């Protein structure tokens, strides 16, 4: 007995859900070419100035002025030594490290605690407090400079590390609470309930259960806060001013680089200026390269949630 072959669908009939392969495919190809070209141009605009500044940091002043786009004939590492010691970049680096470490630590601690309570505990005024944090994102920093100057001068004093740390924390808290609020809202409730059944209190549930589960979001917003506070110039310029000749200079890196640029304009020590710029850029670049996957994971999670 001969086997009966199964019927085949007509070749010219499109299957359900299939998209026509004509105009849509060509449109997608054009869009891909445009997006890739845009990304290449964007990468060149970002990477080229960075590489150029790093190359100038290991050249002599004569090479920089006579051939700005050339390569170094020999690596001048003493530019970094001169920038670190003679131009006081080391002192500015230490001041920045103290302020940013304190600012990021307290921002993440207080921001995660506030976001967790607002996301997981319903109480009267919950939404009002949350929208107050969100409203903080809309306040331009330039409008708050004058009242902020008088508040800091009359409370903790100008040119102090703890005063600038408090301002950094207040400046970064709205975005931190807004970013982490969505993470804590979508964490599974069953895990917290299981921990509570096992006898864990609210503090232990937060620090040992919920906080590790929000690790991608914490790393992402931590990197954003680190970059923002490291590159901050306006707030230190207003609040870190020497009050007398006996007051210590606690300027941060952004202030130090501006002072160095003005100073080197008369000395023509451009190689030390580029070395100082490289010292200021490298720590943030290294941190971002190390945690780039966690940042992408956190941003993707926040978008999907």
From TrEMBL:
Gene Ontology BP annotations: transmembrane transport
Subcellular locations according to the entry: Cell membrane
Predominant place of localization: membrane
Limits of the ABC transmembrane type-1 domain: 93-291
Coiled-coil intervals, chain numbering: none
GO CC terms in record: plasma membrane
Membrane topology: Multi-pass membrane protein
Signal sequence residues: none
PROSITE patterns cross-referenced by the UniProt entry: ABC_TM1
The protein's name: Carbohydrate ABC transporter permease
Location of the region described as Disordered in the Swiss-Prot/TrEMBL record: 1-24
Alphabetized InterPro entries for the sequence: MetI-like, MetI-like_sf
Compositionally biased spans, kind Low complexity: 13-23
Keywords in alphabetical order: Cell membrane, Membrane, Transmembrane, Transmembrane helix, Transport
Segments passing through the bilayer: 33-55, 92-116, 128-152, 164-185, 205-227, 272-291
Pfam families: BPD_transp_1
Family statement: Belongs to the binding-protein-dependent transport system permease family.
